[in-house]
Design a protein that fits this description.
By secondary structure, the protein is of the alpha+beta class. The protein contains 16 helices and 22 strands. Helices cover 37% and strands 28% of the residues. It is globular and about 80 Å long. The two termini are 52 Å apart.
């Protein structure tokens, strides 16, 4: 039985909850993940990426979660929630540490990343949600993909830090808690969408991922192993609806209907359609389809031009060798790829749907669900090779496999042992004969053994650090 992960994409126009099951015995992403449920509701209490009413937002979240649980027929083990890039900022950092043991281990990688974090000044009203290393250097060797196990005397790391306003994060957590949930992780929405849509070639060459949603566009630049830049634009497909309603003088509900029906950026025959008047639905007027197309085209072109300008001003455009990848509900407009290619200086443009997984029915292939599916993948461990997450814990690529197999990492094992060790009575023991430490052993201990055998914990403690035997021996003497 795999672990059940609930991804909740909290958007301004809709809240999408997806539940996925991650199998324990597969390291292949297509085989490891199975989508088992989806639930969507119209958002309330949110506007352009921000929570404006906690009670309404929590009610919407709860309704979406109730829907997905009915679909999946089961509960969840993990909850991963998105946060908009509206209140996010970019900070780059780097630092170098010495490697006394001459071999890089997990503890030293974590120390290097944490040390780099410490060297930069985080605004007092902001909080870190992601620290993403994008380059490692050992001694004079640069561009190391994975430093774990490599030999050297100095480890240097360059990382991208994503911070968000504390108030926005606190309001999000409150809304989640009022819905009866507890978030295991909060993930930047653009980061989650990139996990669900970018392929390995695009990551290696570098790509711009833009999630064009209902009320906003979230943009990230992904290069190599990590995100290098993120940006937000408070414009989305709902702005097209507002434009149509205003210019065509028709109710917003009718404007949304004709946007979906006639949503294209290509020239159409100038047929006439009848629309109800705004404020008096008993009276009507005629409008040509070409007018509708022109209104849609002008709004989308303006949005793409602003995004292209943001990318140029970021100084990260040159990192996007694979071009631009567009996803989100707004990408369903016919002709968007061709227009985007022209606006982005003839850069390659691809319209992306979420990656295919077992159980992924057609409705889940909707680009509007990219973020929610990406959240599930993040919870299953398909994130950057190393990361310090929103809970200030080090995440690394082998960690999910260890956890899903009922095993624990060295770091978790040490914490669990230290918590329980004071209650354990050990027999007299002799001094150690060899020099070993926590980090010099590659141990994987089954959690059930630790729970069911308290004496076993004491034995493990001694195996990890035999000097404890000698310390106890001295205590008994005095």
């Amino acid at each position: 039985m795999g672990i059940k992960i609930l991804g909740i994409d909290i958007g301004s126009t809709q809240i999408c909850a997806v539940m996925a099951e991650c199998e324990n015995n597969s390291t292949n992403i297509e085989n490891a993940i199975k989508i088992i449920g989806i639930g969507t509701v119209k958002s309330q209490g949110l506007k352009k990426g921000s929570i404006t009413n906690i009670e309404l937002a929590s009610s919407s979240i709860k309704a979406a979660v109730d829907n997905v649980m009915r679909t999946a027929g089961t509960r969840y083990d993990k909850v991963i929630v998105s946060i908009s890039g509206k209140d996010a900022k970019n900070i780059d950092c780097k630092d170098v540490i010495n490697i006394p043991e001459r071999e890089v281990n997990i503890k030293q990688i974590e120390r290097a990343i944490s040390s780099a974090e410490y060297k930069v000044k985080i605004p007092h009203d902001y909080e870190i949600i992601h620290t993403l290393p994008y380059n490692f250097k050992i001694d004079e060797q640069d561009n190391i993909e994975d430093p774990l196990g490599m030999n050297g005397t100095r480890l240097e790391v360059q990382a991208h830090i994503i911070v968000v306003q504390k108030s926005a994060l606190l309001n999000l957590r409150k809304a989640i808690e009022k819905a009866g949930l507890k978030a295991d992780n909060v993930v930047l929405s653009g980061y989650a969408s990139s996990i669900a849509t970018l392929n390995e070639d695009e990551k290696a060459l570098g790509a711009v991922l833009i999630d064009m949603g209902g009320a906003s566009c979230n943009m990230v630049v992904h290069s190599g192993n990590s995100i290098r830049y993120n940006e937000f634009l408070g414009v989305g497909s709902s702005n097209i609806t507002i434009d149509l309603s205003t210019i065509l003088h028709t109710p917003p509900t009718k404007a949304e209907e004709i946007k979906v029906k006639y949503g294209t950026l290509k020239n159409q025959e100038n047929q006439l359609i009848v629309l109800p008047d705004l404020g008096d639905e008993n009276s009507t007027h005629e409008v040509g389809i070409s007018v509708i197309t022109k209104v849609i085209y002008m709004r989308v072109e303006e949005t793409l031009m602003i995004l292209a300008k943001m990318l140029s001003e970021s100084n990260y455009k040159d990192l996007a060798g694979a071009g631009v990848v567009l996803t989100g509900g707004m990408t369903k407009l016919d002709g968007l790829r061709e227009l985007a290619s022209a606006v982005f200086d003839s850069m390659p443009v691809r319209i992306a749907r979420p990656k295919e997984f077992d159980g992924l029915i057609d409705v889940l292939r909707d680009p509007a669900n990219s973020c929610a599916i990406g959240l599930c993948l993040y919870g299953a461990g398909f994130f950057t090779p190393y990361e310090i997450d929103s809970e200030r814990k080090l995440r690394y690529k082998e960690e999910p496999l260890i956890k899903n197999q009922g095993l624990i990492s060295i770091r978790e094992m040490r914490d669990e042992i230290d918590n329980d060790f004071e209650t354990i009575k050990e027999e007299p023991i002799i001094a150690p004969t060899q020099d070993q430490t926590y980090d010099s052993l590659d141990l994987k201990i089954d959690k059930e053994d630790l729970k069911n055998n308290k004496r076993g914990i004491g034995d493990i403690k001694d195996k990890i650090n035999p000097f404890s035997k000698f310390i106890n021996y001295l205590k008994n003497l005095f």
